[in-house]
Amino acid sequence: MHIKLDNPKIFADIVGIISELVTEVKLKVTKEGLSATAIDPANVAMAYFRIPADLFSEFNIENEHVLGVNLENLKAVLRRCKPGASLIMDREDNTLKLSISDRVKRDFTLALLDVGGDDKELPVWEFNSVIKLSSDALSEVVEDCSVVSDACTLIAEPDKFIVEARGLNAARAEFSSDEIEIHSASSRARFSLEYLGKFIKGSKISDRATINFSQNHPMRLDFPTGNVLLSFVLAPRIEQED
Fold this sequence. Notes:
It contains 4 helices and 18 strands. It is an alpha+beta fold. Helix 3 (about 135-145) runs antiparallel to helix 4.
């Protein structure tokens, strides 16, 4: 296995984001590209990313590879990639060799881990509501709600989308179809702001976000940028409103 990224920043950003959910992950290298699916220890959230093979300047594999890595260790190495540096990844027996090339070529070796758990794929569901908006707008709303509660409710109608949180205090944001793209029947679901606060860091890689949800059903939050995709799945909180 020998693959090269001329601009590894997006990979470094993705690793940094999902490392807040899980500590270890299986990186899959196939003819289609580099991907990973990870489920947090509480089985509440899932993270998925895909970087297609054509984004790599070199992508040479004879067989598919599953690379179990510690994300903190991988993140620490990727932080050493300065602007303009390239990243080469080679598998050598039970290690992953990472070479960073800029003014000086530097090599790092990470031990591959036996990461347990069944292999999972990103679920494919039909959603009643699909909301497309800027990732900055979503970040602002999630941060507003976090001021007053630990959970927020998403409410979608054909012509409006509302995010609200209620505790002793309350926060509410309403968008019309003139401001964002709404494809929706009537849906309402409640989600943890602790997890959403981690998910919205996907704004680092994309200025657009797509929220997919249905009535009291798990949501999927996508941050697409070109052919690269970072997605999260989050189970709803089924409980009485505050």
